Structures are given as C-alpha cells and as structure tokens.
C-alpha cells in the first residue's frame, strides 16, 4: 500500500512540477524545496492532491516540510493519517 502511495505522489510531482520529465532525478528522500522542484504555492497543490487522491483532510498545522517535502515524507504522512482514521 505504501509503495502505491509513493508511486502516485511521484507521478503527480513529475507530471505537475517537472512537466512530465521522468528523466529528472527524484530521490525518495530528496527535498522538493531544496531541489527547487516545488515552491510554497506548489506545496498547496500537493496538499490538495493528497486530500483528493487519498480522501484525507489536512489541517493547516500539518502543512509542514516534515510532512510534504519529499516523496517519502508524503507517503509516511498519508500512512499516519490513515492509521489515525482507522483507530477512530
């Protein structure tokens, strides 16, 4: 399941921010911001994608680099949110 999330996030970032250039190196742990792939407005687009695609509600306080600054961080965030929703 986590691999599917990573694949979907990677595909979204490549299509939306790299204009479909899959040849661009996008390491799983690589910072979107430090690599200049996504800016602050792009993070909001990524948040909207996560909400729409995975059926989650992202609180303003959760929009942090710790949750949205790499493929791995987004996938981990989605996994945590799903576990929290299942526990409720």
Global shape: globular
**What does the largest sheet look like?**
none
Helix content: 55-70%
Please give the number of β-strands. 0
Strand content: under 5%
Query: What string, H for helix and E for strand, traces the elements in order?
Result: HHHH
Low-confidence stretches: none
What is the average per-residue confidence, as pLDDT, rounded to a whole number? 94
Distance between the first and last residues' Cα: 20 Å
List the total number of helices: 4
Structural class: mainly alpha
What does this structure look like?
The chain is mainly alpha-helical and 88 residues long. The protein contains 4 helices and no strands. α1 (2-17) packs across α2 and α1 (2-17) packs across α4 (71-87). It is globular.
Short description:
With 88 residues, the protein is an all-alpha fold. It has four helices and no strands.
């Amino acid at each position: 399941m986590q691999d599917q999330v990573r694949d979907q996030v990677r595909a979204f970032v490549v299509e939306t921010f790299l204009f479909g250039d899959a040849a661009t190196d996008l390491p799983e742990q690589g910072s979107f911001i430090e690599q200049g792939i996504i800016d602050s407005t792009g993070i909001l687009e990524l948040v909207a994608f996560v909400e729409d695609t995975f059926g989650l509600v992202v609180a303003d306080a959760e929009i942090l680099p710790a949750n949205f600054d790499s493929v791995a961080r987004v996938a981990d965030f989605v996994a945590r949110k799903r576990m929290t929703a299942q526990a409720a």
